[in-house]
Amino acid sequence: MVQVAARETAGAPFGGQEMVAADVGGTYARLGLVHVGQDGTPELRHHRRYVGAEFPSLAAVLSRFRHALEAEGVAFPDQGVVAIAGLLQGDELLNANLPWPVSLAQTQREAGLRRFRLINDFEALAWALPHVPAGQMRALGEAEAGAVRFPALLLGPGTGLGAALAVHGDAGFGVQPSEAGHAALAATTSLELDVVRVLQRRFGHVDNERALSGTGLMHLYAALCELRQAPVVHGAPADLVAAAGDDALAAECLDMFCQWLGSLAGDLAITFCAHSVYLAGGLAGHLGEHLQAGGFMRRFHDKGVLSSALRQIPVSCIEHGQLGIIGAAAWFAAHPDPH
Asked: Domain map of the chain by residue range?
C-alpha cells in the first residue's frame, strides 16, 4: 500500500537565489530559471517546454535546458527542483504515465546539480496558489472566486488525475499531497455503474484516474461506445472535444465526464472541509465550456444535507501554464537544505 507523505509546512524562506524549477507531467516537461526574492516570491526569468517522449530520461531534459540557457549566455544554477507526476518512494518515483523511469540520485548526478529535489506535481501547483493572479481564475459556480480561502482543494485531470490540499494556519502555509486519483471510482447513476462494470472487465481495479483524466476520458468514451453498441471513431481527447458539437455520443461522454468530476470534487471538498476548490490540469483547460454548462456544479452540490454548505464554496478553473514551475520554486525556497 502506498503511503501518502505527511503534510509539510513552510519553514523560513531563503531568498535571493536562482534555481532550475520544472513541472513534468505525462506529456510535457516545462522548465524555468527562477529567481527567488528575499521575501520568498518566485520570479520566472527563462522558460522552455519540451515533449517528454522525445527524451530518454529526465536528466536529458534538464541537460537540454542547460544547453539552451548556456547558448544565451545564461549560467545554469547548481540547484533545482522538479515537480513531477507520481510519488517518490526512496530513490524511485512511482508513476504509470511518464515515458521513462526516474531515479532521484541518478538524475541529480547526470544533470550535474549540487542540490536536487523531487516533489509531487500537484503539491507544486498547490504551493503556487498564493501567487495566482485573480485574472487567471474563472469561477464555475455562484460564489465569487476572490482571494484563496483555506483549506483549498486543488484537483486536476491531465494525463493523470492529481489532487492536493493547501492549508494556512498558525504553523504557516503548507500542502498535503495525495494520491486521490488512485482511490476507487464511485458511481452515482445507473449509467455510471454500467461504465464501471465495463472498466472492471478491462482493468480489474477501477480508480478515479481510469475515467477522470485524459486517458480516462478515452476509456469512458470506449465504454459508452460499447454500451451504446456504437463504433469508436475518436482516438484522442482533442478529437473527442472537437467533435462534441456534431457527435451526440462525444457530447454525452464529455457531459458525463464533467458531471462525474463534479461529484468527485464535491466528495473531496466534504472529506477535507475545503473552503475553496480549484481545477487545474491540461484537460480542465480544454473543457471550459463543458464545465460551465452546469453538470459539474450540479453534481458538486448534490450531497444531500451538505448541499447548502457546498453552495458557499467558490469553485474556479485556473490556467495551469507555468504555475507548476512557480509552485515548485516556492516549495524549494521554503524548504532549505538542513545540511
From this structure: 8-133+322-334, 135-318
Class for the domain spanning 135-318: alpha beta
Residue 83: beta bridge partners? 23, 119
Element (H, E) at 118: strand 115-120
Could you give the CA distance from residue 162 to residue 101 in angstroms, rounded to a whole number? 19
Per-residue pLDDT of the chain (339 residues; tens, 9 = 90+): 222 333 343 444 445 789 999 999 888 999 999 999 888 789 999 999 999 999 999 999 999 999 999 999 999 999 999 999 878 899 999 887 788 999 999 999 999 999 999 998 888 999 999 888 877 888 998 777 778 899 999 998 988 898 999 999 888 899 998 889 999 999 999 999 999 999 999 999 999 999 999 999 999 999 999 999 999 999 999 999 999 999 999 999 999 999 999 999 999 999 999 999 999 987 888 898 899 999 999 999 999 999 999 999 999 999 767 899 999 999 999 888 755
Write the CB contacts of 309 (distance below 8 Å, at least 6 apart in sequence).
none
- Given the C-alpha cell 495551469, which residue does it identify? 320
Residue 163: exposed, middle, or buried by beta-carbon count in 10 A (0-12, 13-18, 19+)? buried
Burial of 264 (0-12, 13-18, 19+ CB in 10 A): buried
List, in order, residues 6 or more apart from 246 with CB less than 8 Å away: none
Burial 84-117 (b: 16+ CB within 10 A, else e): bbbbbeeeebebebbeeebbbeebbeebebeebb
For β-strands 79-84 and 172-177, DSSP reports them as: unpaired
Residue type, 108: Q
Does domain 8-133+322-334 correspond to CATH entry 3.30.420.40? yes
